[in-house]
Design goal:
Two copies of one chain form a homodimer. The first copy, chain A, has about 375 residues and is α/β, with parallel strands linked by helices. Chain A has a single domain, classed as Thiolase/Chalcone synthase (Peroxisomal Thiolase, Chain A, domain 1), CATH 3.40.47. In chain A, the strands form three sheets. A four-stranded mixed β-sheet of chain A has the order 2-1-3-6, with helices on both faces. A four-stranded mixed β-sheet of chain A has the order 7-10-9-8. In chain A, strands 4-5 form a two-stranded antiparallel sheet. In chain A, helix 1 packs across helix 3 and helix 7 crosses helix 10. The longest helix of chain A has 16 residues. Chains A and B meet through helix 3, strand 2, helix 4, strand 7 and helix 9 of A and helix 3, strand 2, helix 4, strand 7 and helix 9 of B. Strand 2 of chain A pairs antiparallel with strand 2 of chain B.
């Protein structure tokens, strides 16, 4: 994984190549053994004016001639790329696939970025009326707090926790612990979401190798994967405080792995906004509806808690280069399971889970991993 | 397959839905039996301002909750989507996958379209210097004619043949036979490519179902598939009159199917420009280098010839809604093999081949099909 940050002077292929080279060197894996490349990228053409990224990245890495394609599923683009690579390797079509998630966003103005991101929602029903993603998740948060009789404290608790974790992650975009007061007093973005309830606009890339046979003495195993979809627009969902796609994807991943929510030791969840982490933790069965909030306030999901969530810092503090996020979550899982997460290492990391969300819940990818 | 044409008043989801509904009805297949959706689309966000197309299309078709993702590989986007769906079904991950290729291009001005398409090439080495795709294929054609001591007659022969075929295809964008004189005398676009050497800017969609088990009494079987990549820029290729990615993809597809070039009864080739059909026919082993030209002039690849190429009219006359092309090629193959191609039916259609190209040869997907 490259550091996440703001790198407008780089180009998108270079970012992807950096992650790919690091991954191949760490494995170690001769590029000639890789037989397919899957690139997760949401909006490279809009952000960078470059399309057809996959063969560009493949040739830069010396993966001569391999099948190379880009997979897009909004913020779950590299989760979806991982899903495809896993399907091809699990099914015996490829032996060793490289998956790279990448996005470069600093090339666009804030206004352009808002418009590019809004295209991942329902443009006719939402974006044309001015509903940006902070606005959509503001509605979700408003309803979540209302339904469960909560206030903004639980959102601030997610932000404080993830900033504390991110401060320990050398690859995080914003390595800055924040206080509860700072989170609560920050300027409002989309009520009840303040500045610190929103994830970052970042550049970066992450890469993983998926192989049919163990590659090293301590490989991380893909225990189960699930992917699901839903309608784009919030007004088409009967309840906006739960994401059916996450529930379906989790159901498949749990069934495939034989793992239940109580078996999970730690998780990387898609906290594009603080409320999304709480809802994900409930949809994944870690907590019953409304209970992720008090659990977070009580420190249960902190690094030293019983179920650490977003040890990496999450999208909130590590950063959210959209197309890179799904693979970056898996990279964190990989490091945690192998005990290589340094100062943010969780205790007794037996089973890790990743959850990658696209749009306001229209795509979800869940993975379960262990040594 | 929807008719290909200019439909600026439609939206991209509606086009995709039309093809999907037709496909499900023709199978027939209850949407609830479909367990994954793969959408091939090149530049929906740039052309239409809509991204995250796959769940949008899935929910419009009633494919509730299925894994849904978009695959992009320039003009081979839906060839790549087909490749992924095939890999997932062949490997046992899915039982029945719907693949839809779609593009809407009439929403953009000619200038915008040129820029959006150019992003599929090497922007730094080519597009910034003004090298649009007609310019790149103009260089290729120039070299091809020079190497083999040919003139523009062979290019015109491809155009005349494909327009004659397209005139028989009710779904073709331009159902207009042209004469050799008309092709040769048309205004020059990028020497030696005249207006009739260039494919069309079209809107449209095509859909296929891939199932693990035979669905009907006369299913079309996927005998072999191959996909490969290459560098983006022409100046990085030692010889621009051959595409190594096509050769590699064909090698894999032939090996998997046990079919050799001489076994192929008819083929749908990626004639984004007339010269591309000639080069593809050589890279696929139908003719030795330089020999596709005289064979085409002699009528060998005509509808009544020994190896009909582009019975559909090809990208040249049927149209080229970029992301729809790969699946539309397979749809033509399906109809030909089942004897359902009407006035353009080829004689004795035992084995059909499709070849989908991305950029100036950086992606290639080849499929071999039979009853």
């Amino acid at each position: 994984m490259t550091p996440f940050g703001s790198f407008p002077e780089r180009n998108i292929e270079g970012l992807a190549r950096d992650a790919g080279v690091q991954c191949l060197e760490a494995a170690p894996c001769d590029p000639r053994r890789v037989d397919a490349l899957y690139v997760g990228n949401f909006a490279g053409p809009s952000f960078t004016g470059r399309n057809h990224l996959a063969p560009w990245i493949a040739s830069g890495l010396g993966l001569e001639g391999v099948p190379a394609m880009r997979v897009e599923a909004a913020c779950a683009s590299s989760g979806a790329a991982f899903y495809q690579a896993w399907a091809a390797v699990a099914g015996g079509v490829h032996d060793c696939a490289l998956v790279i998630g990448v996005e470069q966003m600093s090339t666009a103005t804030t206004e352009e970025t808002g418009e590019i991101l809004a295209a991942a929602g329902d443009v006719e029903r939402e974006a044309v009326h001015g509903a940006t993603f902070p606005a959509l998740f503001g509605l979700i948060a408003q309803r979540y707090l209302h339904e469960h009789g909560l206030d903004r404290e639980c959102l601030a608790a997610v932000a404080v926790k993830n900033h504390a974790n991110g401060a320990l992650n050398p690859r995080a975009h914003m390595r800055k612990p924040i206080t509860r007061e700072k989170a609560l007093e920050a300027r409002m973005i989309a009520d009840p979401l303040g500045l610190y309830d929103c994830s970052l606009i970042s550049d970066g890339a992450a890469a993983i190798l998926i192989a049919a046979e163990p590659w090293t003495d301590n490989p991380v195993r893909v225990r189960g994967v699930g992917m699901a979809s839903d309608r784009l627009a919030l007004d088409q969902k009967p309840d906006i405080t739960t994401f059916p796609a996450v529930r379906k994807a989790a159901e498949k991943a749990y069934a495939a792995s034989g793992v239940s929510p109580t078996d999970v030791s730690f998780a990387e969840l898609h906290d594009c906004f603080t409320v999304a982490e709480l809802i994900a933790a409930e949809d994944l069965g870690f907590f019953s509806p409304g209970q992720a909030a008090p659990a977070t306030l009580a420190g249960e999901t902190a690094l030293a808690g019983r179920l650490p969530i977003n040890s990496s810092g999450g999208l909130k503090s590590k950063g959210h280069p959209v197309g890179a996020t799904g693979v970056a979550q898996i990279a964190e899982c990989f490091w945690q399971l192998r005990g290589e997460a340094g100062k943010r290492q969780v205790a007794d990391p037996r089973i890790g889970l990743t959850q990658n969300l696209g749009g306001s819940g229209a795509t979800a990818v869940v993975g379960v991993f262990s040594l």
